[in-house]
Amino acid sequence: MPSEDLAATHVLEFPGGYTRTTGPVIGRFLTELRDRRLVGVRTAGGRVLVPPLEYDPDTGEPVTDEYVEVGPAGTVESWAWVSSPRPGHPLDRPFAWALIRLDGADTALVHAVDAGDPKAVQPGMRVRPRWRAETSGHITDIACFQPEVTRIVAPVRAEYRVTPGKALTRFLEGVRDGVFLGGRCPRCVKVYVPYRISCPSCGTLIDEEVQVADTGTITTFAINNLPDPRAPQVPFVSAYILLDGADTPMIALVGDVPAQEVRQGMRVRAVWAPPEERTLSMDNVRWFAPTGEPDADPSELEGGA
Amino acid sequence: MRDVAVVAFAQTVHTGHDAGQNEAEMLRPVLDEVRRASGLGSFGFTCSGSCDYLAGAPFSFVSALDALGAWPPISESHVEMDGAFALYEAWVRLQHGDVDSALVYGFGKSSMTDVREVMTLQLDPYYLAPLGLDQVSFAALQASAARSRGSGADRAALDEIVRRSRADGRANPYALDLPDPSGEEDEVGPLRPYDVAPPTDGAAAVVLAAGDLARELAERPAWITGIAHRIEPHYLGMRDLSRSVSAADAARAAGVGKGPVDVAELHTQFSHEEPILREALGLPDGTVVNPSGGPLAANPIMVTGLIRVGEAARRILDGSANRAVAHATSGPCLQHNLVAVLEAVETR
C-alpha cells in the first residue's frame, strides 16, 4: 500500500474568473437587473420566460424580442431549507433555496430567500428582491429575496399605581397575621373569601368578619407549562381551593406534589412564609400542599368552578 | 436493428475513501475480469465514461487508456458522462454492423474533491452556478416539489427506501457497509444526510456483443431489447421538478411497459428520486428495485449508471430474472435519463 500521507493539493481555477459573452437575451436580462428591473422574454406561444432563454424550452423556437417587466414580487412555489450555509452560498445564515414565480412570469426563478426560520416559509409565500448596494449586471445583483411585510411588532407599555382598597387591605392584614379572613353575607348566609364589604350575589352590606381555616379542598385546577414569576417550578398547578368554612373558592398555587398527581377533591393546607418574613402580601402563602388526608367527594363540594 | 447483449460485467469493491490507487490502477482489474469472463482479448469498439472535473485535469480520461493497452491502435471513444451513456454510444456503434463486440467502462474517484461543489460547475453559468447552488441543495428543491405533489416522497417513505437500500448494500460484496439510517437533522431540508448517496470510489466494465457472437460468449446473454435516452430543459424553474417527463419518455421509447419487470436498477443518487422514477417508468408494485442496494449504498460517480446496467444484466446472465430495467441519469434533478430493457429472450 502506498503511504496515505503522500498527497498534494491541486487547485483548478481561472484567476479573476472566466469571461463569458452573454448573447442578446441573457445580456438584456442582466442589463435590466443592473438597473434593478426584472424582465422576462415572451415566447412565440405567448409565455413569459423568467429568466429569459434564447429558445423556447417547449418548442425549440427562438423567443420573440418582446421583453416584459415582471415582479419585483413573486410567489414561492417550492423551497428547500439550508440550516448550515456553505462558503459558496449567497447567505451566511440559514436560508431557503426557492423556486419563485415572479408576478407576470410563466416560469420560476431559482434564488435564495432570507426567511430567518424554516417555519416562516410556506408554498405561496410572497417575496421581493433585496438588491445589493452596488449592481453590476449579475444574477447576484439580487442579494436574495425576502418575505413581503405581513406583520409588524408594536411596543405597548403603560404604568399604573394600584391600591388594594379597604376590603382587600383587611384580608391582607389577616394574611400577614397568618389567617384567612372572609365575610358572611347576613342575607345569603354565605362566607366569601377573600373578605369583601358587600355580597356579590345580593348586594347586601357585609359587616361580619369570619376567620376560616388554612386547610381546604381542590375543586378544580390547571397545569401551567409557561413560567410565571410567582410559580415554584414549571409545570406548576394553579387551583381553586375551597377553604374549610368558606363558601367560595380562592385561587392559589399548589406545590410539593408532582403536577400529574393533583386532582379534584385533594385536601391541601397553606404553606406559610416564616412570621418574620411576612408582609401585607399574598407572598406570605407560598402555595398549598397536600395534607395527606383522604380526598373529599368532589360532587359534594360547593362553589366549584 | 441488430440484437446486442451484455455478455460480461465486472465492478470494483467500491470504497468510501481513497484506497491509494489512481484511476488506471483501479480500472485494470475490472478490465481483466470482463476479458476473462467474455473470453475476448480485443474489442471492435471501446467507449468510456468519466469526468475531468473529478480529477481537476483536462483529458484525464486519456491516461486511463494505460489500463487498456491501446497499441496496436484501437477504435475508441469517450463521453464526459456516466459510463451508461458510453454504453449507449457503443450500442449505436454496434448497429453499424461492421464490428461485433464492444468494451464499455467507467471510473470515478469521489475522494479527490467535494463532488457536491463540483456539481455546481455543471450548472448554467449565468443564472445558477453564480448562486453557489450545490448538488444537495438542488436535489432538495426537487424532493420538496415531489413531497408537495404527494409523489410518495414523504419522510417515512424515504426512510424506508434508505433502510432497504443500505440493507441490500450490506449484502452486496461490492457496495459499502452503511448502517441503518438514523438522526433527525436535515442536511438541506427536506433531505437528511442519509438521503444522499455516499461519496464512493470505483470502476466498472461491461462487454457488449452482437448476434451470434453474444450467443457464443454467454449461455444466457442479457439482450438489450430497448434502449433510449431523453433530456429536458436545464433550468430548474422551467420544469415540473416533482416528476420526470424525460425518464417517462425514455421508458416508453425503450418499451418498459411491454412486459413484466422482474428487477429495476435505478440511478437514484437521492432517496426521493426513487418514487419519481418508479412513477415515470411505470414500474409495477411487484418489481424489485435496486436489489444491489443501488446508488444509496455505493455511488462511484460516472460509474453508478453503468453499474445499474451491469447489475440488471447480471440477473439475466445468472438466470435469476427474465426481464430487467436499468436506468441512468445525468444533469441536475434528473435532467437527462437513459432507460434500457434487458431480457433473456430476443424479441426479434
UniProtKB/TrEMBL annotation, chain A:
GO molecular function terms attached to this record: DNA binding
Keyword DNA-binding in record: yes
UniProt domain ChsH2 rubredoxin-like zinc ribbon: residue ranges: 173-203
Name of the protein this chain belongs to: DNA-binding protein
Family annotation (InterPro entries): ChsH2_C (IPR002878), ChsH2_Znr (IPR022002), NA-bd_OB-fold (IPR012340), Thioester_dehydratase-like (IPR052513)
Superkingdom of source: Bacteria
Originating organism: Microbispora corallina
Keywords of the record: DNA-binding
Domain ChsH2 C-terminal OB-fold: 67-132, 209-272
TrEMBL record, chain B:
InterPro entries reported in the protein's UniProt record: Thiolase-like (IPR016039)
Domain of life: Bacteria
Gene3D superfamilies the record matches: 3.40.47.10
Record protein name field: Lipid-transfer protein
Species annotation: Microbispora corallina
